[in-house]
Write a structure and sequence with these properties.
6 strands, 4-stranded mixed sheet, 2 helices, globular, 81 residues, single chain
Length: 81
């Protein structure tokens, strides 16, 4: 299944490791280290300016303008099809 995560991006749901609230970047040094490493590898996609969630996959990190709850609900909707 694929999930539309905003910013004209689609992610394969079975490749998602975590969907995190963007607010965690303010308090998690480890998360920022992971993001910085992916930035160096040019594996970060989406707009950080309007991000509400961070999707970590096996291959990359994505910023999403949708909340973590909205993304979770989208995954559940696609499972029913």
């Amino acid at each position: 299944m694929f999930i539309y995560i905003g910013n004209e991006l689609v992610v394969e749901s079975n490749r998602i490791i975590a969907i995190l609230d963007y607010a965690l970047t303010e308090s998690s040094r480890r998360l920022n280290e992971v993001i910085d490493k992916h930035v160096q590898l040019e594996k970060v996609y989406g707009s950080e300016t309007d991000a509400k969630a961070i999707i970590i996959t096996m291959d990359a990190i994505y910023y999403s303008p949708f909340s973590t709850i909205t993304l979770k609900n989208r995954d559940e909707i696609y499972e029913t099809f």
